[in-house]
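Hi W., the zinc ion complex you wanted:
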Amino acid sequence: MEAELQHLQTEARADLAALTDAPGLEAFRVKYLGRKGLCTTVMRSLGAVPDAERPRLGKLANDVRQDLEAAFAAREAELATSQAVSGAVRPDLTLPGRLSPFGKLHPVTQVMDEVCGIFAGLGFAVAEGPDVELDYYNFEALNIPPHHPARDMHDTFYISDSVLLRTHTSPMQVRAMQKAAPPLRMIAPGKVYRCDSDITHTPMFHQVEGFLVDRKVSFGDLKGVLSVFIAKMFDAKTPIRFRPSFFPFTEPSAEVDIGCVICKGVGCRVCKKTGWLEILGAGLIDPAVFKMVGYDPDAYTGFAFGLGMERIAMLKYGITDIRLFYENDLRFLAQF
Amino acid sequence: MTPHPNADKLVLCTVEVGAETRRVVCGAPNARVGLVTAIALPGAVMPSGMTIKVSKIRGETSEGMLCSEKELGISEGQGGIMELPVDLVSGLELVAALELADTMIEVDLTPNRSDCASVIGIAREAGSFVGRHLTPPVPRELPPLVADNLPFGVQVEAAEDCPRYVARLLRGVTIGPSPWWLRQRLLAVGQRPINNVVDITNFVMLEYGQPLHAFDFKRLAGGSLEVRRARAGERLQTLDGVTRDLTPEMLLICDAEQPVAVAGVMGGANSEVNPATTEVLLESACFNPVSVRRTSRVLGLGTEASYRFERGVDPQLAPQAMERAVRLLCEITGATVVAGGVDYREGVKPRPTIDLRVSRTNELLGLHLDGDAIVHHLSTIEIPAVKQDAQTIAVTPPSFRIDLEREIDLVEEVARLVGYNDIPTSLPMVPMSFPEQDPGRLMRQRLATVMTAMGFYEAINYSFVGARHCDLLCLAEGHAARSCVPLLNPLGEDQGVMRTLLLPGLLENVRRNINFQTTDVRLFEIGKVFHPAGDVQPHEKLHLAAVLTGRRQPRSPMVHFGGVLVDLLDVKGVVEAILESCRLTQVCFVPASDGELAEPDQFIRLVAAGKEVGQFGQLSLKVAKGFGIKQPLFYLDLDLEILAALPPVTTQCQPLARYPAVRWDLAVVVGEEVRVGDLIAAINAAAEPLVEKVELFDIYRGKPMEKGRKSVALSLTYRSNERTLDDETVGAVHTRVTDIILTRFQARLREV
Ligand SMILES: [Zn+2]
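Structure:
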């Protein structure tokens, strides 16, 4: 009996090792482990052994069966794996996936959302105003009276003598200040228009204007807020410099350059070999603007800044022709 | 130099070019022995594009060409070849000989710093930053001009229009070309030399920033000038040859009979300096900036002079620039100046002193300067400042800084002098407040997320379109979208009006994409349309429009889904998703046949609260053709203004069902005219509490059914919240539902 069991075990293990496919496995299962298999037969024959031997031999028979069951399971798993690798009906996993349709936001929107998100994080409210503005809000209330030479800086589309397409989103400064008392922190994203069209100008483009008004707001604060913005928008190590400039509605006025993101300041075509890129205009809000909206210029100070979205998107993505933004060619839109 | 054997007007010249000699045929009247001139050697390309070659002219070899200034593009020329200074070394390149190779510094001048629209202004500004002071070519303080016994006079009508007018007379002027140094300097800044008198006035303007004008004195009637506004009907031919109508707001310089110049803009042809001029009346004046700007705008005439006057010219500059010009005229043209002159200065006001507060300066800039430091900073740019007390500095702006009028202007100067980059950076200490978001913007963001999730790319088009778009869309006369807001000064006809629909832009985009072989296109745009609203600002309304065309599964290769094209139900699904995401399930879909943009029977109007909130459909083939699109295209257009005003359907969380549902099918044969939506609506209207959901799962036409009928198979889900349903209960409800369908739609059950 004992020898018989050992023989069964050896033979079964040899059979198992020689198996290569599923039918073989099934045959093995039937032959050894099935209801009428050899293991069962052996167990049944336990009845014929003497009582004293029965527990020991019974345990032995059980051990053999368990060993074979475990070996069978292992071999089955082994074969299943190897078959997947070498079998004839392996699925071709290099086939392209079934993609549900999905689209993307326009690169200008993406940049605008990012800019607005940074300022929202600094507690700036977001408000939009009309695209078709009154001359009063676009110019006069911003300290640009009729016949001011600064109007030359804005090639304006007119609807009538007093109605125009806004040339910047700065009118929102005035509209917001007329509506509420300081402290005020707001950005105004939107479309702006200038009658100018070439490789670097489109007659419509996007701007984000921002301003902050409170007591004791300083030029240093303006520098601080813009530094935070540039560090978040580009890279914490991006160098920044402020240059004196002129805008009728801010004083002191500044233009802000960042170290060229393309050549890292060495000098390239985009930065015209200067290593710097002009990125935004800013300044302390001119007391004349405060007077226009009825704020006391001695009590309140504030700063304002404005930046072009296309300019940033072009730098960020290496776009060289601004007109691409408005052709809406899917080969372009799909890249961002 | 020898005569040409075969031509009377030509000569054979032997020209010394450095160490070599060249034989050149020349026809210039001023060719003569000993002349130093310019030669173009074989290989040289002339401004006209002609390449100089060794050639035969009337049988004689010519090894180059002697050139006139005109041929070299240097000036209009005096007739004949260039006459260069005799002390030049032969063989030099012309660029080197005339010192034309120079370094150009381009200055991007802001409108407030008109004082820097001159070499002296830039020099003064640059000097202050390197600690050097400017030495002007003539002294700043000049003896006053005496007006006694002058052979001319000047009258000024209004001091406000013309705060200062300085005039002097020069006699014995010989008009001719300017000396080389003067011509070379004008050429260096891109100006063409004309003659010595005009060149000197231009040179002094560039040097001082003070525009000057030279009149031919003998051509001035009555020998006197008057500065006055134009009278109705007056006209003047300006130096550019254009005869201009003058309007009463324009300021003129007139002689005893007629206008002779538009003040500060351009002189008149009737008093122009010409080769016969011997007496010059020179004007150095200061005109009102607004007046000059308005005049220059109305005339459409911008000049170097008007540029400077518009931005403001220091009234103290007039006598200095006059003195400088007079000295040059005497030196160069051989003129003598008549003693004395007119110096009208009624309009020159003393500059008021500005109080600059030390604390205010520090507060605005975030600095801790003391009064002495501020005084010192200002002194470096010639701004006199005196400390009144510890907190106040009295500043008298110099006359050339006309932009310094207020305390804040001085604060900016201090900031600039400290250096913007040296001002310490800080962050504002502001009370915390909630940053409100723009509701339109939030809606746009939410919808854009839905649209991109459904495969649409965002497009942004210009807010202005061509008026002809309404015709391309075949809109009826009087259609609301035809009433547009026009631009007064569009860049072109195709950008002439503000858009009233988003669709034309998107259709142009589709055409472009198809032209570039992208035929599966899904685009959307969320933007404003503009409707006239009286003579004020137009009404701006946010719309969402989308177009879809091409394959239903554009991003997957054909192997997966084949090339099935989109149809109306695809765009319907998009609309359903939009409404669901906005919780606007109360919007009704109303199929209609009167969609102007749509194919018949491919058009659905969206209605809510009695208002049309949008529409979608298949673009009519005629309109598509007008936009050059030959494949079926579906569009949708939503009025977000109305949509945003609808109350969102509020959602209460429903408990999840605890008992299983039972699905029973119902297949009925109905006439083709019966609409599936009506079948489902009829079942829902019965409001059977156990009917949870009705779904369409099949529509079948063909045998064994007769023509004109179809089989509609619906799957009804029954569920109770209280117990597991048994067949008997479900069967009773199902029979009631079936009866409704059978009786109301003349249907019969389909035998399976
Ligand atoms: Zn660079």
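The domain at 662-749 of chain B is CATH 3.30.70.380 (Alpha-Beta Plaits).

W.
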